[in-house]
Design goal:
With 161 residues, the chain is mainly alpha-helical. It is built from five helices and no strands.
Length: 161
């Protein structure tokens, strides 16, 4: 891997982390007293670029993982990486799914509190200012990177040589 590709990858990772922060920053929080009834969803400004950046990060991670596993020449090191790196990637993948599930359940609890406070059902729609961070957050980013790493390892491990 060249220094240029590593720098490009680092910039892409930093961009994705910045977009996680911006999406979370623009997601409204229910404080128990009032809800916002504005006409806009500022998180949408960052969701679509964030998804695009995450897709680019997945592709770059996959390419770098394939190159990395191809460059391993020592069979002893290769055997160690055949076990440990996929295991850590799978563990990170499962943890990210668990944490995303917890985040969704916490949002559902907040949604129930909002509807009880208003005394009537509240339909916010799929993309609303209160749940932007459900669609792009650090857990989803970890899932994307772990899945791309596992796919890169799988491609190299299936080769006959």
């Amino acid at each position: 891997m060249s220094v240029k590709s590593v720098k490009w990858y680092a910039v892409l990772v930093l961009l994705c982390v910045l977009l996680v922060y911006l999406v979370d920053l623009t997601t409204f929080r229910y404080n128990g007293r009032t809800i916002s009834a504005g006409n806009g969803n500022p998180g949408l400004l960052f969701l679509f670029p964030a998804w695009t950046a995450a897709l680019m990060l997945m592709i770059a991670t996959f390419i770098m993982a394939v190159k990395y596993f191809d460059d391993l020449s020592d069979h002893i090191v290769k055997k160690a990486y055949r076990f440990w790196l996929p295991l850590f990637s799978l563990l990170a993948l499962l943890l990210s799914v668990y944490f995303q599930y917890r985040k969704i359940m916490q949002w559902m609890d907040t949604y129930r509190q909002m509807t009880e406070r208003l005394g009537s059902p509240l339909f916010l729609g799929t993309l609303n200012p209160y749940n932007n961070s459900l669609y792009y957050n650090a857990h989803i980013l970890l899932f994307c990177v772990s899945a791309a790493m596992l796919c890169g390892w799988w491609v190299v491990s299936r080769r006959p040589y």
